[in-house]
Amino acid sequence: xxxxxxxxxxxxxxxxxxxxxxQAIKLLQxxxxxxxxxxxxxxxxxxxxxxxxDPKDEREEQAVSGEEEVAPANENQPGEEVKxxxxxxxxxxxxxxLEGYSLxxxxxxxxxxxxxxxxxxESLLTKQTxxxxxxxxxxxxxSIENDKRLAAAEIIGNLxxxxxxxxxxxxxxxxxxxxxEVFEEALNLVRKFDPPGIACYNLQECLLLQLExxxxxxxxxxxxxxxxxxxxEGRKYPVIAKALKVSVDEVLAAAKLISxxxxxxxxxxxxxxxxxxxxxxxxxxxxxxxxxxxxxEGLPNLRINSFYRSALTDSSxxxxxxxxxxxxxxxxxxxxxxxxxxxxxxxxxVTKSIVKFQRAFFDHxxxxxxxxxxRDVAEDIEMHESTVSRVTTNKYVQTPQGLFELKFFFNSGxxxxxxxxxxSESVKNRIxxxxxxxxxxxxxxxxxIVALLKEQEINIARRxxxxxxxxxxxxxxxxxxxxx
Length: 484
Prior knowledge:
Layout: H1 19-28, H2 32-45, E1 49-52, H3 55-65, H4 94-99, H5 131-140, H6 146-157, H7 169-176, H8 180-190, H9 203-213, H10 220-227, H11 229-233, H12 237-244, H13 248-259, E2 281-286, E3 289-294, E4 301-304, H14 306-313, H15 320-357, H16 359-364, H17 374-381, H18 385-392, E5 396-399, E6 402-405, E7 413-415, E8 421-423, H19 424-436, H20 446-455, H21 462-471, H22 477-480
Helix pairs in contact: 1-15, 5-6, 6-8, 9-10, 10-13, 12-13, 14-15, 15-17, 17-18, 20-21
């Protein structure tokens, strides 16, 4: 078969993802905090970008400070030239002037006569004490041998965030070239540190160690933990009482004591910092209407640097390489500003559409949340579903009903007895309310919750109730049962 070369013309359509379009899509799916980080990074890398203020704010600041330009009464009369006299600069006592604006207040402002005596800013910073820091501080106060001290430090370094030890003593001994006997003595020492129950291998050891600290190692609670922990987890109190030949009330009292122990002793030293959510958009009720407003607080107001803009205008004063660099950075800056504005407009449109579809929710609460899918909003604002999906991810709206993620308003529907449909989030909320009002000694089963929902004209299967209950983090009726 002969091979030959030939030319062929073919017409086709192809989707091209330009860098600018990729940047716009990336900014669209970023959260508010991530967008602030991106803008801050661009301000540091792109010299053509600068943070400006709103012209309205500038005019207000000038009006307050009295810096507005005032035309002279007679333009033909020349004004006097104002000269800065340097003689008076030396008369100012700058040391006293700066001390008046020190960080201290009151009488302590003059406590440091010399600048070298003043503490540094780093010494004023604080750091949260971690579990390892707390244990190492106690180890530093212990008078023990060097090998045992090294072994104890190795044990402390292998604890997890809640204080449990997962590495065996043999593994620790082989990695540090120390005898196992030394690690056994070090482990006994570390377990005497605060908080009680630290450096244990499992929950049973942790709770028994805490009872030992309370001088209750021979109590009924300790016996139950040693021999009947599986029955205790299953709340089989009559079985435990029959095996130990005690009353059920005594077993309940011991179980109550065990429930007051801390199963995660190191949790108090490793609590994560609270991360507050900043809403991307606000919905305010003004009269009978809902007004949607953007949250621009914290977002820099970007603009192009005037110096580089004038340099591009007068291209004769700029060489070729510098001109190409400025042009490239100019395109990047303009596209970033346009992408941010497009992102804000899209979030605004989506929120306006959500308010239109979920008006009953904004008026009366979660019980009146309606089923809604991405396609409904996409068709309403004439955008693609994928765009709506990106906009509603990690974006939050502050409403009269509270703070919600935009994804919250999109949920499936469940049929009611009258042929209408109710949102799944509303059903979850009703399940939460039913569980909150139940008797802790006789909690409702999933089948009973189905019957109670049916009385509210909501037809739902038991497996769906189980799925929603697990999504809400609510345990089964056995797990929710409380006898004390």
